[in-house]
Design the sequence.
């Protein structure tokens, strides 16, 4: 995806390593967190459905569903510990 992105296929999973910077307001890793981002691949329709559920439940969304130039529709939010979570679909 970029010079700062590396992927390793491990069985049916992908481990991706990258430098922070996808969201414009990346903040320092909160003290006491794992300092990681977990991403979950779903269908395109499920990205928007997840957004609706999260907002209904009062979860602050970091970045609403967005079509990215690298071929993903993404949704970002944080867990209660401040770890960044991503729901995405390949488009």
Sequence:
């Amino acid at each position: 995806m970029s010079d700062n992105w590396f992927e390793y296929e491990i069985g049916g999973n992908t481990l991706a390593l990258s430098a922070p910077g996808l969201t414009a307001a990346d903040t320092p890793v909160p003290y006491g967190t794992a300092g990681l981002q977990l991403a979950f691949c779903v269908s395109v329709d499920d990205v928007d459905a997840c957004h609706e559920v999260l907002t209904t439940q009062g979860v602050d969304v970091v970045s609403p569903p967005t079509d990215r130039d690298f071929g993903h529709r993404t949704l970002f939010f944080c867990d209660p510990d401040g770890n960044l979570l991503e729901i995405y679909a390949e488009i």
